[in-house]
Design goal:
Layout lengths: L4 E14 L2 E4 L3 E2 L3 E10 L8 E9 L6 E7 L5 E8 L4 E9 L5 E12 L3
Antiparallel strand pairs: 1-9, 2-8, 3-8, 4-7, 4-9, 5-6, 5-8
Length: 118
């Protein structure tokens, strides 16, 4: 039987985040999948000193969240991809923006999720 892969949008194109801070996106249920190839993109930041990291977080219960995999830190106008093995029921994206002059940052995150066999 061929593997079934579904594309899920984790952060829509082109989401703009203003200022600095930590931003959490809506959790999705990933129980039906065993792996995900997650791709993150960022545009050119508005501001001179901006650091942006995109982390995937996983949870069993929607209360306690753990970082899942490594941080995605794409360069301006570039993508970065990471292959993750799924061992939890819930997944969300956390974006952290730091810097002394951050005005606006545009990002998107998508995943190619591979379904578990029934």
């Amino acid at each position: 039987m061929a593997e079934i892969t579904e594309r899920l949008v984790l952060v829509p194109r082109f989401t703009t985040l203003g200022a600095t801070g930590v931003f959490y996106f809506k959790p999705i249920n990933v129980r039906a999948y065993y792996a995900a190839n997650v791709t993150a993109w960022r545009g050119r930041p508005r501001g001179t000193s901006v650091d942006l990291t995109i982390d995937m977080q996983a949870s069993y219960d929607l209360v306690n969240w753990d970082d899942w995999g490594g941080s995605l830190d794409p360069s301006a106008d570039d993508e970065q991809t990471e292959l993750l093995t799924i061992d939890r029921e819930w997944l969300r994206v956390r974006v952290t923006i730091t810097g002394s002059d951050s005005v606006a940052n545009t990002i998107w995150v998508v995943g190619e999720f591979t379904a578990r066999e029934n």
